[in-house]
Amino acid sequence: MTNGHRPTLVVGIVSQWFSPEPVSIPESICRFLTARGHSVRVLTGFPNYPTGKLYAGYENDSPSTETLAGAHVRRLPSFLSHDLSGARRIRSFLSFSWQTLRHRAFLKSTDVNYVYATPMTSAAVALGNRYLFKTPYVLHVQDLWPESVIDSGMVSAGWKGKALHALIGFGLRPIYRGAKHVIVISTGMKDALVERGVYASKISVVLNWDGNEKPDFIGISAPSSNAHMTESAPPGIHCVYAGNIGQMQDVETIVRAASLVENEFPIRISIYGSGVAESSISSLIQELGLKSVQLMGRVSQDEMAEIYGQADFLLVTLKDRPVFRMTIPSKFQASMAHGVPVITTVQGDLAEICVDNGVGLVANAEDPGSLADALRKANALDSQARARMSIRAAQYYRDEMSAELALGKVAGLLESASER
């Protein structure tokens, strides 16, 4: 049976996280594939991300099946954790991986498997089925291991960290070697994998897209659609941070930078989200006596569209680690999709995108003084300059990051990989 010129396939998706968790990429791919006429089977865990607490209505004790996003979904019980304990996090990764191996027959009849490779341990069942059933698989690398494990603070430095780095690196070799194709989210990540012996010909760079993009959503059509870009906009700037408030997100630098400019010009910084560092950030705001920074808590994705519409700039920060130089945080895609320029401390690929395309300002990582200078530059831009940045942001998203563009590439690679 065919769909146009394409054969109708049975595609397996392996992802430790899936809807209703706020991890949009696997579900987006699932819906896109079913819309193209393919049949999809999803092997995933019980929803607990990002808190590590099981969602209401689910029981993490035995496998269950359901139909979701047009796919046959099997959820597997595993150890749940998403806290600061590296041991518990690793146990969570390994327990899910072990469960997928036990239920590998669920994917026995697939023509090709897709692995949402964060964590990389999710690829174990695809590798196993590659040898058992000759099923090809495509690896979608979101976080580069072993760096993401070592540099994230999940494990301590020293000989233990070095030993784990070597062990993970050794374990990844057959996973990359066995993959029919490898998708990465940045050119820096591709370069790193080529240096490690992965053939450049089997690696494709596909920039992530905004997971909340609607089918008919193209971006900001005109600068007048955003209140903050009109002549009547209030003086100063409104900056938004939206996402996880963790150790690596370096929200502390945002707060300290705000303390340096609060008395120079009107500024509002709204921090949306939650995480393990939230309480310490709250204490720092009180300690510095800041009135310009507010913790807004977590909000729904539906509410975020209005929040983006009220923002002059989105703040995108990470600590200075080698792995983050190859990372493009998901909040950047969302910002571009809504035509909101960014102020970022993320070095490497993201900084280059901002500078080369004029869609944001760049500051040094973990440097409150440098970020404060970027805030001053942002405040000094007049409404026309901000409008031009907004137009460039929306245009960049349409040209390089849209869901239609990215999903078409991913689906094409899966269809090509299925030709055994």
Describe this structure in words.
The chain is α/β, with parallel strands linked by helices and 420 residues long. The chain folds into two domains: 2-209 and 402-417, Rossmann fold (3-Layer(aba) Sandwich); 223-401, Rossmann fold (3-Layer(aba) Sandwich). The chain contains 14 helices and 16 strands. The protein has helices spanning 24-35, 86-102, 124-132, 147-150, 159-178, 187-195, 251-261, 278-288, 301-309, 330-337, 349-357, 368-380, 383-401, 403-417, and strands at 2-3, 6-7, 10-14, 39-45, 64-68, 71-76, 112-117, 137-141, 181-184, 203-205, 237-242, 267-272, 293-297, 313-316, 342-344, 360-362. The strands form three sheets. An eight-stranded mixed beta sheet has the order 5-6-4-3-7-8-9-10, sandwiched between helices. A six-stranded parallel beta sheet has the order 13-12-11-14-15-16, with helices on both faces. Helix 1 (24-35) packs across helix 14 and helix 7 (251-261) runs parallel beside helix 8. The longest helix is centred in the middle third of the chain and has 20 residues, at 159-178. The chain is globular. The protein starts with a strand and ends with a helix.
